[in-house]
Write a structure and sequence with these properties.
With 369 residues, the protein is an alpha+beta fold. 52% of the residues lie in helices and 12% in strands. The strands form 2 sheets. The chain has a 5-stranded mixed beta sheet, with helices on one face. The chain has a 3-stranded antiparallel beta sheet with strand order 1-2-4, with helices on one face. Bound molecules: 1,3-dihydro-2H-indol-2-one.
Length: 369
């Protein structure tokens, strides 16, 4: 299967129709569901196999307990999928949907599990149990850590792809909602998504800090575009968490908090939709900027380090704390859908985060090969 790579090519053809929502504008027909299911039954095991091999190629990761557990889930899923007979009729398709739904659930803990693995690795490096230096005689070289980061990036990117395709297929089997094709909403409203995320994060923030800065929303509040609202929600949620947390910690001793300001803009000629999130939470030193995108490095000494990686936060697994994964994962999501996330910080003052989003339908699926 892996040698032919036919699945990847099939992926492009089917995907541009199914995933981008050009298939049937109302209820997906049985024929289309059978086609989509057949495609997934070939494509997903190929992607799983690539990731199983990917995890095996990086010595640091290969030896970690959390990674071995994840690999076991991937191998079991792979075997289950290749054992599934060809999908020829609606009955087969229904069985397949059942199996895929179960797999989807079984994989929901994978991200947290991998994050825990990386956390242990970070702690090992920091405490000196794991030695990292340029010296080839040592356990791990810096180069091998870079390999490790690349492997994780591919792993998460691939996982997003599998879950978007599977999620889209499963959603297309449900009663269609207004303006939706599967998970894709043709009229996603960034302002509505930001408002909802702001309510969620404000609640978490008050639970943790006793108060929260106001989240102001300005710009193109009326704008709608085709996107998957659940993914946009996740991205904005993670970024708002960071902004509110930084604000609360910087102004711990002040009676008032500066607001977090969110601007929504629409590029010329319907190019990008851009969301900017501005906080006055003190910013990040320039020397730490690269590390905030890392799955592996800690940002020792900075506010972010205190907030995200401290032992206290690890034991108290509040959703406000997280595992330090929000930023790189959010950026992978944005990138998967053809967009990106940039961050500009003024050390001592605050941080601007820019989320660039492409209208779905104008992009090709990026998958690691
Ligand atoms: C900070 C650090 C950060 C990361 C991401 C988004 C906003 C912020 N603010 O201080």
């Amino acid at each position: 299967l892996m040698k032919t790579g036919r699945g990847e090519m099939l992926g492009k053809t089917y995907k541009s129709e199914a995933f981008m929502g050009r298939l049937g504008h109302q209820l997906a027909t049985n024929r289309i569901l059978i086609q989509f299911a057949s495609f997934l039954s070939q494509e997903i095991p190929i992607r799983l196999a690539h990731r199983i091999r990917g995890l095996d190629q990086v010595p640091i990761l290969r030896d970690m307990h959390a990674v071995q557990q994840v690999k076991a889930i991937y191998i079991r899923s792979f075997l289950e999928m290749i054992d599934f007979p060809p999908i020829l009729n609606s009955n087969d398709e229904q069985q397949f949907a059942h199996m895929l739904g179960d797999l989807y659930t079984k994989h929901s803990g994978v991200l947290v599990q991998m994050a825990k693995g990386a956390y242990e690795l970070r702690e090992g490096i920091r405490s000196g149990d794991i030695n990292v230096s340029k010296d080839v005689d040592d356990d791990f070289s810096l180069e091998s850590l870079i390999d490790c980061h690349r492997c994780l990036d591919r792993f998460y990117m691939s996982r997003i792809g599998i879950r978007v395709l599977a999620g889209q297929y499963l959603a297309m089997r449900q009663e269609p909602q207004n303006n939706y094709i599967g998970m894709i909403c043709q009229k996603t409203s960034p302002s509505a998504v930001v408002r909802e995320a702001a309510v969620n994060v404000t609640k978490l923030c008050i639970e943790r800090y006793g108060r929260a800065p106001e989240v102001q929303l300005i710009g193109r509040l009326d704008l709608t575009f085709p996107y998957i609202p659940t993914y946009l929600h996740y991205i904005v949620l993670e970024l708002l968490k960071n902004a509110l947390r930084a604000t609360c910690e910087k102004f711990e001793l002040s009676s008032s908090l500066p607001p977090v300001v969110v601007v929504i803009a629409d590029g010329t000629d319907n190019e990008d939709v851009v969301i900017k999130i501005t906080d006055e939470g003190g910013g990040i030193p320039r020397s730490q900027i690269e590390k905030i995108w890392s799955y592996l490095y800690t940002t020792a000494g900075s506010n972010l380090q205190k907030a995200v990686f401290s032992g206290k936060d690890h034991s108290d697994m509040s959703p406000m704390a997280g595992l330090g994964y929000g930023l790189p994962i959010s950026r992978s999501y944005a990138r998967y859908f053809g967009g990106d996330i940039d961050l500009m910080s003024m050390d001592g003052h605050g941080t601007d985060v820019f989320v660039y989003l492409k209208r779905l339908g104008d992009t090709k699926e990026p998958i690691p090969v």
